[in-house]
Structure formats: structure tokens, C-alpha cells
Amino acid sequence: MGILLLAARLLLAAVFLVSALAKIADLAGSQKALKDFGLPRVLAAPLGVLLPFVELAVAVALLPAASAWWGAIGALALLLIFIGGISYNLAQGRKPDCHCFGQLQSEPIGWPTVVRNVILAAVAGLVVWQGHLDAGPSMVAWVTSLTVAQDIELAIGIVLVALVALESWMLLEAMRQMGKLLVRVEELEARPVSAADSDHPEFGLPEGTAAPAFELPDLAGELVSSESLLATNKPLFLVFSDTNCGPCSGMMPEYGKWEREHSDKLTFALISRGTVEENRTKTAEHGIQRVLLQTDREVANSYQVRGTPSAVIVRRDGSIHGPLAEGEEEIRDLLQEETAPPNPRALPVLNGKAAAANQMAFADLGDPAADVTLQDPGGHMISLSDFRGSPTVLLFYDPGCTYCEGMLRELKAWEAKPPKDAPQVLIVSGGSLTENRMLGLRSTIVRDPDFSTATFFQVSGTPSAILIDEEGIVASKVKVGGPNVMKLIKTTHAKAGAATR
Fold this sequence. Notes:
The chain is an alpha/beta fold. The protein is built from 16 helices and 16 strands. The longest helix has 43 residues, at 148-190.
């Protein structure tokens, strides 16, 4: 029985020693773990530093026979606290990172974590149950009583056990990583990413809805909220990543470059999963400044993100801007669309005779709009006067214009869920019949291959737009560039017939 008690104490001492040293090497992670478990920040900070040293004291106390019983009581008390905390969080549906062995093993808690601690608590309870005077022999006294041959056998046994433990840990770690990879592959196979899927309401929040608030720790353990990120008075560029995502890792060099080049226009935040050390390894070499850690996918789920990498822009007023971008290519396009300076494509200039003939038709702000009549792709003649009675945004668009293509997704998203007081949109397009049909827009499209009607409204590039009120009066100046055009569409309301000037 004495050898069994000694073995129990050695097992507990080894577990608490490894746990303590690993936590001491990452005190910030230890503090973060306690915050994630629900402790107030005022308690989590000091207890996160104190806990590993208490574990170290328990490990040391378990070795000598004189203090072994007290060490076992300390071990049992800590394990019961761990079991209670883990069970409470699981019952609440939360799975914070346990940080049980610091950076050596840090993963979301589960019922296997409870079982492991219950087994260790039973071992500690065995030593406590034997009483103060019968906690087993002293480690030092037992070793000194062995013969030389027994010392050699013990040393060989310890080495073998250590090798088996190391090999088992490496195998389990490999299986854990492989499991994560297989889960990700299954998710991607079940939900293939495509441009067409980006408009699916299940993925990504609708344009204009309020962005979910969040508060997450950064790599230093400091909590950062979405409110503080928007306080910079710049749009927020959120990128969702994962340390086990290959495409995410491949995108990190470019993301670091984006952050450096466009921080004057956007506030960047990388929301990732994984441990502090894993994320620091992935991002530090690329100079990435702001990495926020979610425990599992709680923030990604609130934004209806289905895979990584994905990105979304939150406007300064806290609303969603545009559709969810999935994959590096779409994320790059989203960034370029947001940061590109207005550079509309020039329209053909009418010859001098035609310009002179139309000079009287030019309409300024407050003048009646020219009642242009053009043919839609179906061959029907459509006049601007057909839209009287409701504010109408007259949009000049060219399918071959890069900046028009850049606003197409946002326009389609707006068309999919327009507000009740939304204006009518009449699109004057210079594309072919096939190109206009392929746009997939719900608004009325009329064709003007030479953009001859653009002159009536003093429009010189695409995309451009002008507002015509209910009475057919020009109610805005010409808005040039995708962002300005979409702002005109979204801020015009049929009930008030408000002019954007």
C-alpha cells in the first residue's frame, strides 16, 4: 500500500508541476483563461498569476512524507474547484479554452476534461483518506533504500515511461490536428464557397443591418470591443481567420500589407481562433497589429460567417456594408472597392453638332428632367415620365466598367431587400443585350449604347446617378462613383421625397 500511495503522490506531483510551469511561461494566457471562465477581470488578473504558484507549491508538498498529506488536501481542493468551474460552464453551454497545461495543451473544455479531473481527484482523495500519518514513504528515503541495480532499473523505467508518454502525447496531438482538418474539409465540402452563394441570406448579414457587438481579448489579454474599434470614426474591416486554416495562413502576408497601407481609411481587426502562441506565430512576422481571439466561433456565428477566411465591412454607424466576402480573392476585391479612389470611366463625348442641339435640354438642380425614352432589353419603349409619382434614381451604368462591376453586388443586395420607402431605380446601360441580361438586376434597365442621354443630365462617367423627384424635377447633383451612387439610392425615401444635395 505504501508504494501505491507514493505512486499516487508522484502522479499528482508530476501533473501539478507540469501545469504550474506551463502556466508560469504564459501568465497572460492563464489570466485570460480565468476571464473566459467567467471570473470578473478584477479577480482574474491576480488569480491568473497566483494559480500556477499554488499548483507549484502543491507539487512540491506532495513529495516529502511529512507534508504529503497536506499537499494531497491542496491538490484535492484545487481539482474540486476545477471540476465545479468546468461543469458550470458546460451547463451554461460555454466551452472556454481550459489552458490546463498552458501552451503545452490548451483547448476548449468538454466532459472528457471533467472526467480527467475527477480521476485525479480520486487519486488525491485516496492519499487524504489514508490520513496524515500514513501517506506513504518519503520519496527520498525510498530511493536511497534501493540497491544499485534497482536504481538502474528505476532510471530505465522512468526513461521508458517518459518516452511512452511523449510518444502518446505526440500521437494524440497529431490526431487532434487531423480531426480539426477533417472537420474543416467536411464543412467546406458540404458548403462550397462560390460567388453566387454570397447573396444567400443564410450566409452573411443583410446590407444595412446592425452589426453584432462583441468584446474579445487581444494577444496581450486586453479586452477590445467593437464599440472601441468604431470609435476611430472609420469603417471597420473585420477578417475572420483560423490558425488551422491553410488559406488563412497564406493570406497573412497580404493582410499585413493591407493593414499598413490602408489604416488611414479603415480600422482593421483580425478575429481568429486558436491559442495566443499559435496566433502570434502566424501574425507577428507580418507586422499584423490587432488580433482578437474568439473562444470557438461565437462572433463568426453572430455575423453568419460559414468559413474562413471571410471578411465584412462595418460602417461608422455600426451597420453592415455590403455582402460577406469569402476567400482571399473576394476579400481583396472588397478591400479594393472600399479603398479605391473615385475614377469613373469616361463616357463618349457627343459631336459638336449634337451637343449644340442638345444644349437647351441640359437640366440643372431644380429644373424639369428631360423625358428621355429608350428601349429595354425586351424591346419595350420606356420613358422617364413613366416613373412619375415616386422618387427615381437615374443610374448610368456600363457592364464593361470596372467601377460599375465593383458596385454590382451591393446594388443586388439592396434590390433583394429594399426598404418600404425605397426609390425606383432606372438604369441607363451601355452594354449589349446579353451583358444586360447577365447582370441579374431587378431594376428596370434601358439601353443607350452611345450614352447620348447622359448629356441631358451633364453626366460624364460611369457609374453616375442623379435623383428625379415625384414631379419629374432634378433633385440632386450628379453623384459619381459606386459608393456615392449607392449612398444616393439608400438615403432617398419615397415617403418624404427627400432630395440628396
